[in-house]
Structures are given as C-alpha cells and as structure tokens.
C-alpha cells in the first residue's frame, strides 16, 4: 500500500517525502495530513473536491492518466467546447473562441456578399422581364402576320370567285341581249310583211320566221337548263378554330417565379478558410453563359435529325426523309450530299480517321454508316442488333448509342462487340453525349435529362417541364455544362455539371423553330443548333 501511495505534492516541492492522505482533483495532486489542513482552510482551495487516498487508488489507471492540463498553455482545463469536442483552458478560450473583432469583420463582409447577390438577382429579374416582353411581342407579331396572311388569302379568293361568277352572268346577259335584238327584228319584219307583201310572200316568209323563232325558243330553253343559269350565291363557312379563339386561348402563357439555391459564398473564420453554401464551380458559370448569333445557314431541306461541327468549320446534317447526309462549308454553301443506305438519324464526327458515324434510327436495316469526309463516299456499314438513334464518340473511337427499348450501349466498331451500360427501356428519338467519364442522354417522353457514369450509375437527373419539354439533341462543353435543345419548348437550355442549375439561353426570338439537334465545338466555343426544317444557327458563347 505504501509503495503505491503517491507522495504529498506540496512537501515534494520542498524536497520532503510524505505520503498523501487525500487527493485533490482540482489541484491534481496528493496532500499529507499537515498540508491537508492548510488546503481545507485556504480561501483559494477550501472548496476543492477531495477524496481519501485509499478511495483515489481504487480509480482505474486509464481514468487517472487522463491529462487535465492544457499541453499548449500548461493551464488547467476549465471548460469543454461542444463545437470542437475538446477541453479548453482559459488561454485557449481567449485565443480560439473570443475572436469577436474578426467575426464582426466577417459578418460585415457576408452582409455585403448577400446584398450584392440580391442586387444581382434584381438585375436578372429585370433582364428576364425584358426578354419575356420581347418574346410575348414577337409571338403577337407572328400571330398578327399569320392572321393578316390568311385574311388576305380569303379576300383574294373571295374576289376571284366573285369576278368569275360576274363574268359568267355577264356573258349570258350579253348573249340574251343579242337574241333579244334579233327577236325585235323578227317582230318588225312581221309587221312589214303583213303590210306590204303578197299572200304568197307572206306565207313563205312566215314559215321561215317560224323556224327562226323555234330556234330561239330552243336556245332559251337550253339557257334555262344550263348550269350557268342556276342562281349564284356567295357563302362563307368560318373556321371553327377562329370562332373559338377567344374562348379557348385565355393567355399568352404562364409567368411564375422559380426558386433555386443561391450561388452565395459565406466565409467562416478566414484563418481556417471554412466556407458554407459552396456550389459546384461549374454551376456558377451557368448563370454567366450567354449566346450571340454568329451565322445562319440555309440547310435546304426538311426533317433534320442530327448535326455536328467538323474541326475545319464545316457542318454535317442528317436529313431523315431525304435519306441523305449533307455537308456545308463554313460560309454556308453546300460542300457535298451523300445518299445513305438507311434513314439517317443522328450523326457524329470521328476525329482519329476523319469520318462521320450515322445511325439508322427505326430503319428496317439496322446499321451504323461510316462516311469518309475526304473521299465523300461511304467507307463501310456496321451491322447492329438494335435500333440506334442518338450517337456519341469516345476518345478512343468507340460509339455510345441510345438503343430504343434497351438503354445505352457501348459499341466497338473494330470487333463489333456491344456492352450494355445503361439498362433502361428508353423510347426512340433519344440523343446521347459523352464527356470525360460521364454519359448524358435525353428522354423526350419523360421530358428528362440523365447523367450516368461509365458503369451506368445515375449521377443526376434533370426534369423541369416549365423550362424544357421534348428534350432532343444534347452536347457538353469543356466545363461539363450540358446543352439541351427542347423541341416542344422551342429553346436551348444549359445545365450545370451537377444538374442543379439551369438557364434558358436561346428561344424563338433567336430563330428557333422546332429545333431538333445541336453540337458544341469545344475548340471554338461555338454552338450549332439545327431546326427540323430549313435553317440552322451557329452561336458564339459570350
């Protein structure tokens, strides 16, 4: 017992060895009988918690070994900080938890950050309001122009019909007048014959006149029986849709407010570089993406399903019902046209051999056609087992394709092997894109855009029918922002890399009319957008 009993801490400082009789937890040392008496009377220690030494020795060693003194300041721990989950001495409190000045500076900075964000939001609201007003006015102009056109058409038709009927009746009146003159002449002749001719002459003349009168009578009867003698009346059947216009169309559209997380960065303890509400970096970029029209191309044809930009600035389009691929020069003139063995759906550029890959959609013959751009001829066709619609090309020349009813496939054109990446009963008319280790595809039935990794695991899905309907063509820029064309919403929408942020960057005002496909050129930062009919546009990002 004596060998394990600690010595008195106070006596030990005086180089006197005495065994302790009590233990003070707050002083963290033992006291002998003499020192115990002074300890219990002293003002600074009289309230300390003590226990007999034999009770203290019963405490497990692990508990006794717990350090109660701050190793940095050599001061006794006084409080426990819940935030940092650690014990603190008085100096630690002052050093790490009483930085009020710094907190006030940070608070002021954060207020300014929030103010700037809200002011920027006000500016965006004003700009969006102006853009919506322009779109409403443009819609009104389109409607007015269309109504003016169909009004002019019906008035022209009315005038033409009335003029034709007037001509028919006028011609009949002219013939009747001519016959009326001849009959008057017959009557005059009869009077003269009666007065001056002999009986024989009268008899013979009357017989001749009777024949002529009979002919005239038969003529009048034929006129009465003819179609031209039927009564002519103009009638007008108004288009029911025009009558119901006011009843069925109550507004131009719907205006509403959509909320989303703010791109606000608030600092906490600048020396620790702690941050909250930190969005993905690329998400911040979405709000700053804008398009400027660079060039308009007359594509000379209809039902374009796919498009892509080539490194030299040329553009390739797949004309589905024309069963052809057309390539245009940078200035918009046609370079060449190539008839394909199937209905061409989507089209993609293969960089390592300067060719184009074209899918066959729902054609009876299922294949991927490879076109040599240099020779302007079909290089080969690759037979496949599925109806492939959208197509993208990996960095090593493999194909990512959307298979109707099956999902997303990875195809090796060399050995013709196929790997299922995404197993999903997707509809036809779905487009795909690939960038880095992510695959993106659209679904025009569910109005959604999905991002998956190369193992097919869904990373995110975007669906907002108020901004994007009938998503079709899809492409990705260098920051992993995703560009999607909405056929039914008649717009282009850019999504952030995490799928959380979005922005409408092109509408009908910019020339979009049933847009079907697009392609982003990562070298020039230009976006090619193709309408289904007659026109495509190249936009530059600003």
From TrEMBL:
Coiled-coil ranges from the UniProt annotation: 115-142
Keyword presence, Ligase: no
Annotated keywords: Coiled coil, Metal-binding, Zinc, Zinc-finger
CDD domains found in the cross-reference section: Bbox1
The keyword Repeat belongs to this UniProt entry's keyword annotation: no
One term of GO molecular function: zinc ion binding
InterPro entries: 6-blade_b-propeller_TolB-like, TRIM45/56/19-like, WD40/YVTN_repeat-like_dom_sf, Znf_B-box
Gene3D superfamilies reported for this sequence: TolB, C-terminal domain, YVTN repeat-like/Quinoprotein amine dehydrogenase
Domain of life: Eukaryota
Residues covered by the B box-type domain: 3-53
Protein name (record): B box-type domain-containing protein
Organism: Mytilus coruscus (Sea mussel)
